[in-house]
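Q: Could you fold this chain for me?
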Amino acid sequence: MGHVSSGLLGPAAATALEDLPYEARGLLSGLFQEAYAVGYLVAALFYRALVPTTSHGWRSLFWFGAGPPVLIIVFRLCLPETNAFQVMRAEREAKLATEKTGARSVEDELQVASTQEVQNSGSIKRKGIKAFLTEAGRAFRANWFLIIYMIVLMSGFNACSHGSQDFYPTFLKDQAGFDATDVTVITVVGQIGSTIGACVFGYLSTFVGRRLIMMMACVFGGALIPAYVLPRNMSLVASAFFQQFFVGAVWGPIPIHLIELSPPAMRSLVVGLTYQLGNLASSASATIQGKIGEKHPLPPSPTGEKRYDYGTVIAEFMGGVFAYQFFFLFLGPEMREEEKEQMAREAKELERLRAEGRSLMEIGASRVSSKELGLDRKENGGVEHVEQSA
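A: Sure. Below is the predicted structure, expressed as structure tokens.
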């Protein structure tokens, strides 16, 4: 279950964000990420509707959760591969086709009118897979330290969401004294705030910078921790909204930030791998909070059940997590402004060529020719040599 569901994230992020205009990627990154919050919100609603009112209890949530994956399969079958992926694959296969036929350039190969047949041959397809594995291995060797950094970073991000949410319903019920309906209302409002925060800060990250906007969210989120755990009345609705607003704000730019940091040859793999390994590292969050809770016991409940001061637990844990995130965001890398401008130009150029009716194969082949021409110029010291007539 975990293996299959976790494998969806990397390809889903690439599918959702690769073909977007650059200016829209921050906003849509936040919207994509907060599908998590929407799912959490729906789960909270169904928990209130099914668990206390049916004889099957928590099992009803799992039965309900078995339905959406079927819809995802149908939905994904109806979608094509992204333009970015198809161009990359066409570029790789065009290069292999040129090597196989001995053409002087990819453009010459296209003019022969046999390129498409050669590229679609089984031999080229197999070589394309081998070339991808070679590129991926080279990219991993060149970026292994960056990948480790991304895993360390994502462990903090996953701890942020789990640390602020997992024990919060228990805090609301056992310490604040709310009933199931009030707990559901506060939880739902918090997830609405998370969705809004992710979209707003994801959009702002396009102009302010990914790391800076996430560090700002860490500062504001940390400042709101007391308001998140000290009140014992329905003012916690507002506290939950704004605290989760900044938790979502920290998360909003992350999908596009990971994509921008990842080597192109390993984009889907690196995004999914670093996210899920970070999630694995953060799985200790509940255990850590439980151990902190043992240091802050409360008087037993009227039924004799042990209780702990989870308000203090959440405050201590989240204070440390926000500081952790701020520290590693401050130290970490970010796509340079020149690279962002180049990415924006490439996205616009792809849209222009598609509007002119150029196929993705032709675009990929054209990019190979452009790179070969640039390499030739670099080898010649950047000077074009022109033959002069006698």
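A (continued): The first strand starts at residue 297 and ends at 298.
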